[in-house]
């Protein structure tokens, strides 16, 4: 069983428990559900955008604890002030140390910055959760989902006013994924089945395979400013980076220094 298999198995249990305790009607009644969302697409395409989507991530299956000493408000506000085009907040508890409260706190601290709910989405219920917790964008991971699930979940996200980031790792995942309701395609340079690799080759290989009308995002394994310029040259507009900043004592300052070198 791969790490991704273990995460998805746990997610089935989590979703069932959440459905039993909080109804969709309750989610619709939450403070954030009716808010007007912020567009990550617009932020990435804005003139002068850094293109960087900075991530709040306490730990990961491959790295263990990265940084669990800072509040989510401190980290995300630091990112926004440094020039992040968007924020990514982990809400998976068991494997990444995140929570719904992290997303809610990030939303309150950064009302006008686009926020991605970073989790392993397998059920439409989680899309309602994302909206209720203050997200603007959801992540769909092709390796975890069937084409029909991608279609259904992305369509539900659009119905609720959320943007959709579809994550792929190779051309097979891209080719089998329906893109009608996908706003952004992210190429994860790290294989989620084993969390291996430490380069951006996957992004470079898929750059000209992603349809031109969809925003291209490169995810993971980006640690040098010159890599951003390399990816921009082949059409990438967004760069999702977490560990590079989170392993620093001051992630916001680290991001500002990174941006200054691009």
Automatic annotation (TrEMBL):
Keywords: Amino-acid biosynthesis, Aromatic amino acid biosynthesis, Decarboxylase, Lyase, Tryptophan biosynthesis
Gene3D superfamilies listed in its UniProt record: Aldolase class I
Domain Indole-3-glycerol phosphate synthase span(s) in chain numbering: 4-256
Residue stretches in coiled coil: none
Keyword Zinc: no
Highest taxon of source: Bacteria
Assigned EC number: 4.1.1.48
Pathways per UniProt: Amino-acid biosynthesis; L-tryptophan biosynthesis; L-tryptophan from chorismate: step 4/5
Reactions listed under catalytic activity: 1-(2-carboxyphenylamino)-1-deoxy-D-ribulose 5-phosphate + H(+) = (1S,2R)-1-C-(indol-3-yl)glycerol 3-phosphate + CO2 + H2O
Protein name as catalogued: indole-3-glycerol-phosphate synthase
Source organism (scientific name): Emticicia oligotrophica (strain DSM 17448 / CIP 109782 / MTCC 6937 / GPTSA100-15)
């Amino acid at each position: 069983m791969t790490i991704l298999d273990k995460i998805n198995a746990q997610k089935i249990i989590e979703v069932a428990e959440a459905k039993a305790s909080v109804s969709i009607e309750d989610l619709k009644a939450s403070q954030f559900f009716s808010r007007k969302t912020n567009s990550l697409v617009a932020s990435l395409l804005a003139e002068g955008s850094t293109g960087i989507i900075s991530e709040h991530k306490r730990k990961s299956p491959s790295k263990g604890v990265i940084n669990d000493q800072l509040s989510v408000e401190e980290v995300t506000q630091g990112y926004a002030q440094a020039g992040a085009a968007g924020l990514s907040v982990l809400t998976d508890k068991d494997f990444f140390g995140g929570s719904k409260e992290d997303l809610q706190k990030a939303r309150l601290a950064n009302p006008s910055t686009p926020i991605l709910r970073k989790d392993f989405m397998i059920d439409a219920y989680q899309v309602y959760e994302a909206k209720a917790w203050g997200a603007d964008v959801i992540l769909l991971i092709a390796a975890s989902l069937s084409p029909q699930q991608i279609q259904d979940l992305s369509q539900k996200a659009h119905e609720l006013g959320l943007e959709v980031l579809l994550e792929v790792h190779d051309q097979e995942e891209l080719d089998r994924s329906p893109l009608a309701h996908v706003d952004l395609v992210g190429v994860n340079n790290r294989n989620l089945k084993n969390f291996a690799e430490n380069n951006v080759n996957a992004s470079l290989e898929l750059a000209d395979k992603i349809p031109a009308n969809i925003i291209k995002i490169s995810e993971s394994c980006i640690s040098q400013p010159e890599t951003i310029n390399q990816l921009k040259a082949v059409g990438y507009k967004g760069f999702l980076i977490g560990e590079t900043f989170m392993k620093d004592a001051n992630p916001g300052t680290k991001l500002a220094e990174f941006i200054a070198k691009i």
